[in-house]
Amino acid sequence: PVLDTEDTWVSVEGPVSIVELALEQKRIHYPLVEHQFVLCTVLYAIMRLSLKGVKPLSLFDSKGRNAFFKDLTSIQLLPSGDMDPNALSIRQQFLLKVVSAAVQMLCSSQKDREVSEEDYFPFEKGKNWPTLAADLAQYLQISEDLVRRHYVCELYSYGMDHLGEE
């Protein structure tokens, strides 16, 4: 962008303005940022839902793993649409674990009526883990319907039929 400045401001001495500093920055490669976001979401889900035995980097192929250690301004080769069936299976199992753990946690908090959901997750007001898993399914190339069906099945299996019907 072209910044028009008045002549009196050109002769002023001092530090460079924040606008000029921002314009000098390299542009980030947005798909690489999205890729990092997926990893952060996966790590947060593992931590928050106490998932055991999940290796987060196994959810990504070699190109995806290499992209994590590159500068965000560099244009990297990200995973293509063709994925190894084993990697897709691992991703699917992970998302189903997230949904199962979320329903189990919801069911246990429903049994403990004294403890509200806000007390359980004070910083996550309104966080809906099954919806987050369905959103994550888009990035991980897994069918959202599969995740949603598993969510409904889990609700029914824990006796929360009224939520399963919704």
Task: Quickly describe the structure.
The chain has 9 helices and no strands. α5 runs parallel beside α8.
Report what the structure shows.
- This is RBGPR protein.
- InterPro entries: RAB3GAP2_C.
- It comes from Spizella passerina.
- The chain has 166 residues and is mostly helical.
- It has one domain.
- It is 58% helix and 0% strand.
- The chain has 9 helices and no strands.
- Helix 5 packs antiparallel against helix 7 and helix 5 runs parallel beside helix 8.
- It is elongated, with a radius of gyration of 22 Å.
- The protein starts with 6 loop residues before the first helix and ends with a helix.
- The model has no long low-confidence stretch (mean pLDDT 82).
- Structurally, the number of domains stands at 1
β-strand number: 0
Largest beta-sheet details? none
What proportion strand? under 5%
Shape: elongated
Structural class: mainly alpha
Mean pLDDT: 82
Along the chain, the helix and strand elements come as HHHHHHHHH
Low-confidence stretches: none
Give the SSE map.
Elements: H1 7-10, H2 18-24, H3 30-48, H4 62-67, H5 85-111, H6 117-120, H7 129-139, H8 144-157, H9 161-165
What characteristics describe this protein?
single chain; 166 residues; mainly alpha; 9 helices; 58% helix
